[in-house]
Each structure stands twice: as C-alpha cells, then as structure tokens.
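#struct-queue
[09:14] JT: dropping the first one here, sequence first, then the structure tokens:
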Amino acid sequence: MRIAMIGTGYVGLVSGACFSEFGVDVVCVDKDEGKIARLLDGVMPIFEPGLDKLVETIVRAGRLRFSTNLKESVAGADAVFIAVGTPSRRGDGHADLSFVYAVAREIADALTGYAVIVTKSTVPVGTGKEVGRIIREARPDAQFDMVSNPEFLREGSAINDFMRPDRVVIGTASDRAKEIMRNLYRPLYLIETPIVFTALETSELTKYAANTFLATKITFINEIADLCEQLGCDVQDVAKGIGLDGRIGRKFLHAGPGYGGSCFPKDTLALVRTAQEAGSPLKIVETVVEVNDARKKQMAKRVIQALGGSAKGKTVAVLGVTFKPNTDDMRDSPSLDIIPALQEAGATVRAFDPEGMTEAKKLLDGVIWCDTTYECMGGADVVVIITEWNEFRALDLDRVKKLLRQPIIVDLRNVYDPQTLAAAGFTYISIGRPSAAA
C-alpha cells in the first residue's frame, strides 16, 4: 500500500515513520523546504527518543521518502493523511483549521483515482465533513471517502504508543474505506489491538473527550494536592489510594505545576468553544481550563515564599523548562509562566534543560542558560525542579548544597522524598506533601 502523509510535524512524522515500519510505502510532505532538506539529511525537526534511528533505517530500506511536492505525492496514493497543525485561534480559542482546509484544496487538485482522505490532525466535530465538501466542490469527479483517525501519541513515548496502542479509533461510513484502514493497521490486528469503528463525527469527538478527561484528571489531583497542604496530608498516598481502584486508574494522578504541551491546552479550549456553540456547555471542562491557567501562574509564588517572601536580588536555578521530559516541546509549558513571574519579582534566573533550551531561548528573555545541571545551580539561592528529567532524579546532594547560597529546593514534580532532603540539610518544598526542613 502507498500513503501520503501531509505535514511533518510531531504527528505526521511519527505516524509516517511507524506506518513505514509496518511495511507501507510512505511519502511525508511538507511545504517547508528547509525542514524537508534537513529530513533528507537525517536531521529530525523534533526530539523524540528513537525516532532518528527509526527514520534512518526505513529510509535506507526505501519505504519512507520526504517531499515538498504534494501533487506528485498524492497522485496514486491509497490513503492521504492530513496531519497539519490546528493551533488555538487567537481571540476565541477555537481550533484554527486554515491549514487543514488549505491542504484539502490541494488534495482535491492532486487526486488521480480513488483514495481515502484521513484527518489525523485533532479537529473539531464536523471538520471531516467540511473537508469532504471542499474536495467535492473543487473536484466533482473525484473518487474518495472521508475517514477520521485521531492520534493518541504521548510525546516522549510516541513510537511505542503507535506500535502498541491501547486502541485505534476509525470514523467512516464507507465499507471500502474501512477495508483500506484495516489493511493499514493489519499488524495491530495481529497483536489483538482493539480497533473501534464508528461514525466520522463520533471519532472526532472521541479524541477531544479523551484529552479533556485526562486534563481533568490532572487538574483534580492538583486541587487535591492543595487541599492536602492545608490538612497535612500526602497527595502521593492519596493518589495511590484512589489509583488502585480499577475504575479510576493510576495514570495522570501526579500532582504538579499544571498541564501544558501541544494537546491538552488547545484541545480543552477547543472543546469548550464547540460545546458552547452547540448549546451544551461543559462546565467541568471550563473550570479545568481556568484552574490550570491559574495554577501555572501560582507556582512562582511558591518559590518566592521559599525565599522568605521576596525574590528581589535572588538567583533562582531552574531545572527543566519543557512541558514534560523526553521532548523539546515548549508549547504551554509551565515554565513560560513561572520564569517570567520570577523575573518580574526581581530574581535572576539560571536554567538548564537537556533538550529544550534551543526552543526555550526563542520564548524566554533574560535567562542565563547553562550547559549542565550543576553549572546552573552555582551561586543560586534556590533550586526549582519544573520538569522531571531523569538526570534530575539522583542529584549529588552534597555537591548541590555546596553550590547553593541557601540549601533550598522547590520540587514542583515531587521527585524527592521530603525526609531524605531534610536529613541532608535542605529546606524542601514540594506539591501536596508536608514541607520538610533541616
């Protein structure tokens, strides 16, 4: 089989590479000539563990190609995947579908025979139908069927999520399209992955419902963490106690500075707007959005309080700036709220991140960027852990203590045990757990 993947961002590149690994002939298309040139040279535009080696292997095998020529790539393809960005639209929070619709018009011009047109991008309910209308209007003679096939990839573990997913959701009313999608995902049938076939619109809503539920779960445990601090309880024990209930589950019950990234912030907001326009507002999700936005802004106050109520003239060492480990993605990262707030309060910020500093430098001004974890901490008044990269999980505490002006650690990811840090001579502040002091 042969497919064209339009868009070489996170979703398009990972999905294209993984389909190629399944034995499918894939061409990944992008208008950005510089990006395509770098991909042809083996340079990945994103950091995703294992992606560079996977791409190198399947390009060498001849199953994966990169191109800027959409018309040539779409011609003769069995399936055309739309995997372009759908960022939040400025002003109203709706998903910006301009890229999706522009690609639809180009696809219409490029079709040479029957093809399945698949929306892989996260899109609001009704988008697939509109894409079909655009193509039909431009090419009344075109032979195609529309499919919604949302992605459920976690940054940092995307390849495994594609190869061994919890489920695959496919929305279409066409038996012919179903057969093509079954063939594309045949390797997953062999390992008995649940394949959910449903209506086009239902598939689109399923993606938003999944991300919104997970965002709600994160926000719930964050609010429980705040309550724990007031009552002297330990949020990690609470999370374990409720997570062992099979109806709840353990995942996404880690208290922290709030969710960020490329999906949850924009998808919760887009679903809120869709529900409001449909006359069926989602009050829970509206609250989740409000609480999460406020939480990220509140985190700087915790650091300032740890410094005795004032950050003026103090130096803060920030460990980790990406929204999560194992990615260089800075989109809606809590650090984008925390660091400017600390600077506004008069602090000098030194920072280190294993992969995210190139992107972070474009978004954060006035930060002293360091080459190593320990260089970052030199002469600082407090260490703040924002992202739980593995290399921050086993710090040499004696060395840290010598580097700091004051032995204070504010751990926004609950990486360390409070009693261990207290015994090592630190004032340790975490999330939803009793603070510990030497």
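[09:21] JT: and here's the second one, same format:
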Amino acid sequence: MQDQIAAFISTELLKDPTRKIAFDEALISSGLVDSFSLVDLALFIEETFGVRIDDTELTAEVFDTIEELAALISARRTS
C-alpha cells in the first residue's frame, strides 16, 4: 500500500518517477504536495483502496506522510 502511494506521488504528482519518497517524509508541510495535488492524491486513494476521504481530512495533520495515509486507509478498511 505505501509503495503504491509513493509511486503515485512520484510519477503522477511530481512527474519524476525516479524520485524516491520515504514513508515518513513530510508531504504537505514541506510543500512537496500542494493543495491541487492533494485532491488528486485523495481521489487516487479513494479509487485504489476503496475508502472515503472527507474533505475536512485533506490537511497536513491527516495527510502529511505516507505512513499517516496508510494508517487512515487501514482504519477505514476495518471499520
């Protein structure tokens, strides 16, 4: 799951498939992912992992690392 998210960010959002993203790397607070890309990332997560992301969750507190995203996805899948 985390590898899929990292690959999507590198390839689709950053347009640099050679860019390796650490699972604990800050995405939003570092400026790596901007507000426009954040929506694309949320849509990717919803479509790929079959979970619903609320608009109020599109924040650095929830979406700032791939680890946080994976935890959110896992929690949604079990509830």
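[09:30] RK: nice, looked through the second one.
[09:31] RK: The first helix runs from residue 2 to 13.
[09:31] JT: good to know. Helices lie at 2-13, 35-49, 60-63, 66-78.
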